[in-house]
């Protein structure tokens, strides 16, 4: 499906189902019950980009800045035993340059407090779609069939430094970003060219140093941070039945003389 289909009159979002492209075969070449909104990837990229402006300065003996180091950011866990090393012909080891920042997803927890308040998702994207020329019927059909599932995603960040002054600079730069929370700006859907702000906060930050060093070990100071991002995952777009009428029957409380007192009939049009 091409992105332009969204502005066509009568386009059905259920047929799209987050697919970037389809094959000329059954179900577009996808498994029957397959769905993948690719929202996690966007959140991971946005999280790493958020920390892409950390700098460490090196000073001379008079306190003047002489070197500006942009802290590199990498997604994935890091272990000293698996750090890539390049050995010269003399057999000398070359270790990963410091400072550096790595991060990974540490946990995902369903958030029941946000499960009952999903109207924000609908109103946020409705204005964007209407301004792009998508007709009201298509917009309404999309959000009738869209089912966000709120999750709090935990991230662990580790910054490795070889100087205490570098670690202290990193701690201050990260700490002032949260008061007590901040926002990630990410595209939740590839077919909507609009960024949404996701609230996230820092749960903890601590400084760790090596107490003892073996002969060949390199000194390392580590800054560890833990974060939680309030995100949404999205289910498969599909039609669902809506409750249009509720009928309530009220009976008396005497078991031996049970009879109907009244019937309450509430229709959607009455609300």
Describe the structure.
The protein is α+β, with helices and mostly antiparallel strands. The protein has helices at residues 39-50, 119-131, 136-145, 164-175; strands at residues 55-59, 65-70, 73-75, 100-110, 148-161, 181-186, 196-209, 221-234, 245-251, 260-267. The strands form three sheets. Strands 3-4-5-8-7-6 form a six-stranded mixed sheet. The protein has a two-stranded antiparallel sheet with strand order 1-2.
Class of secondary structure makeup? alpha+beta
Helical percent range? 10-25%
Low-confidence stretches: none
Q: Determine the CATH superfamily.
A: Myoviridae tail sheath stabiliser
Straight-line distance between termini: 38 Å
Biggest beta sheet summary: 6 strands, mixed
CATH secondary-structure class:
Alpha Beta
The spatial strand order of the largest sheet comes to 3-4-5-8-7-6
Rg calc: 27 Å
Number of domains: 1
Short description:
The protein is built from 4 helices and 10 strands; from the N terminus they run αββββααβαβββββ. It is an alpha+beta fold and 271 residues long.
Characteristic terms for this protein:
17% helix; 10 strands; STM4215-like; 6-stranded mixed β-sheet; single chain
Task: Write the topology of this structure.
Layout: H1 39-50, E1 55-59, E2 65-70, E3 73-75, E4 100-110, H2 119-131, H3 136-145, E5 148-161, H4 164-175, E6 181-186, E7 196-209, E8 221-234, E9 245-251, E10 260-267
Parallel strand pairs: 3-4
Antiparallel strand pairs: 1-2, 4-5, 5-8, 6-7, 7-8, 9-10
């Amino acid at each position: 499906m091409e992105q332009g289909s969204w502005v066509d009159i009568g386009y059905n979002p259920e047929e799209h189902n987050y697919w970037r492209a389809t094959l000329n075969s059954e179900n577009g070449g996808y498994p029957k019950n397959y769905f993948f909104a690719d929202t996690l990837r966007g959140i991971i990229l946005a999280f790493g980009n958020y920390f892409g402006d950390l700098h460490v300065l090196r000073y001379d003996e008079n306190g003047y800045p002489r070197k500006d180091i942009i802290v590199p950011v990498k997604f994935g866990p890091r272990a000293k035993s698996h750090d890539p090393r390049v050995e010269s012909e003399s057999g000398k080891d070359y270790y990963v340059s410091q400072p550096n920042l790595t991060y990974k997803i540490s946990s995902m927890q369903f958030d029941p407090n946000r499960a009952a308040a999903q109207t924000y998702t609908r109103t946020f994207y409705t204005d964007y779609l209407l301004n792009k020329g998508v007709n009201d019927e298509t917009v309404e059909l999309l959000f009738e069939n869209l089912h966000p599932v709120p999750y709090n995603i935990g991230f662990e960040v580790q910054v490795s430094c070889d100087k205490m002054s570098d670690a202290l600079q990193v701690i201050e730069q990260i700490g002032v970003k949260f008061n007590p929370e901040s926002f990630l700006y990410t595209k939740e859907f590839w077919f909507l060219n609009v960024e949404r702000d996701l609230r996230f906060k820092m749960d903890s930050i601590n400084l760790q140093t090596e107490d003892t060093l073996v002969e060949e070990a390199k000194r390392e100071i580590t800054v560890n941070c833990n974060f939680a991002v309030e995100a949404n995952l999205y289910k498969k777009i599909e039609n669902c039945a809506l409750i249009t009428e509720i009928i309530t029957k009220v009976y008396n409380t005497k078991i031996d003389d049970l009879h109907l007192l009244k019937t309450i009939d509430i229709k959607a049009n009455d609300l």
